[in-house]
Design goal:
By secondary structure, the protein is an alpha+beta fold. Helices cover 29% and strands 12% of the residues. The chain is built from 7 helices and 7 strands; from the N terminus they run ααβββαβααβαββα.
C-alpha cells in the first residue's frame, strides 16, 4: 500500500483515448437545453462556503502566463449546487490520502471569456502561428477557449455554472504535479498527453501521468466529464457534458453570477 492508499489504483489506470471525446465536442453547443428539468433553475453556491478550496486564477496576479488580473474577473468561485455537491463528494474520497481539490475557476463572467477568445488567444496565435487565418484560426482558438455565450441556447461552458477548472493538492499544501501550467494552450495540456508517450526514465512525466489519472478517475466516479484538451476542465449538466454522455439535452443554460450578502 502506498501513501495514496486506495487511490493508487486510479493512478495506475490509464486515461482512455480521447478521440471520441474530441469528436463529441464538435457542435455540442447546438444541443437543446431542457428548460423544464429540475436542474435548470438551480442556483449557484460559493464553493469555499462548502469547504472546497480554491482561488480564482483570473482575479489573482500570480497567474502565469498572464501575470495580471484579468479585466472583468471576480474573486468568487460560483458553481451550480448539484455540481458543487459532487466536488464535496470527491473531496471526501481524497481526504483519506491527505488530498483535496483546489479550484482555479468556476462560473465565469462573459467579459473574461470574451477577452481570452477575442483578444488574448488570437494575439498568441498571431505570434506563434502566423500561418493561421479565417476558419482555421477560429478552430485553433476554440480548441481551448469557447466562444462567449450567444443567447440563451448556446452558453459557453463556464457561463452555465456547470463547468469547473481544478487540480488536486495536499490538504492545505502544495499542488500535485500535473505536467503543465493551468491554462497552457498547447498539446502538453491535453488530458491524455502522457498516455501516448514513451516515458522511459522520465520521472517527472510519469508522475504527471499518474496524477492526471487520479484527477480524471476521481471526477469520473461522480459522473463529471473532462475536456480532451484541458486536463483541469470538468463539467456536469452543460452541453459539453450532455454530448459526451449521449444525452438528448443539457440541464443548464446561462447562469447569473452569485452574490454574497
Amino acid at each position: 500500500m502506498t501513501i495514496f492508499g486506495g487511490l493508487e489504483r486510479w493512478r495506475q489506470t490509464p486515461i482512455p483515448d480521447q478521440a471520441a471525446v474530441r469528436a463529441r465536442r464538435t457542435g455540442c453547443r447546438a444541443l437543446p437545453i431542457d428548460t423544464r428539468c429540475a436542474q435548470y433553475g438551480e442556483t449557484l453556491v460559493e464553493l469555499r462556503d462548502l469547504g472546497v478550496a480554491g482561488e480564482n486564477y483570473y482575479w489573482s496576479e500570480r497567474n502565469p502566463p498572464y501575470w495580471q488580473r484579468i479585466e472583468g474577473s471576480i474573486p468568487d468561485l460560483w458553481l451550480r449546487q448539484s455540481v458543487a455537491r459532487k466536488l464535496v463528494a470527491v473531496n471526501a474520497k481524497l481526504e483519506g490520502a491527505g488530498l483535496e481539490l483546489f479550484v482555479f475557476d468556476a462560473w465565469r463572467p462573459r467579459a473574461v471569456q470574451a477577452y481570452f477568445h477575442d483578444v488574448w488567444m488570437p494575439g498568441q496565435l498571431g505570434r506563434h502561428r502566423p500561418d493561421l487565418a479565417g476558419e482555421a484560426l477560429t478552430r485553433e482558438i476554440e480548441r481551448y477557449w469557447a466562444a462567449p455565450t450567444r443567447g440563451e441556447t448556446s452558453p459557453a461552458p463556464h457561463a452555465t455554472g456547470g463547468a469547473v477548472d481544478l487540480s488536486i493538492r495536499w490538504i492545505g499544501g502544495d499542488l500535485l504535479w500535473m505536467g503543465s501550467l493551468f491554462d497552457d494552450a498547447t498539446a502538453i495540456a491535453h488530458r491524455d498527453h502522457f498516455e501516448s508517450r514513451d516515458l522511459a526514465m522520465c520521472f517527472s512525466d510519469a508522475e504527471a501521468r499518474a496524477n492526471r489519472r487520479l484527477l480524471h478517475w476521481a471526477m469520473a466516479e461522480h459522473d463529471l466529464s473532462g475536456h480532451a484538451e484541458e486536463w483541469w476542465h470538468f463539467s456536469w449538466g452543460d452541453q459539453m457534458w450532455a454530448a459526451q454522455k449521449n444525452m438528448a439535452a443539457a440541464y443548464f443554460g446561462p447562469a447569473e453570477g452569485g452574490s454574497r450578502q
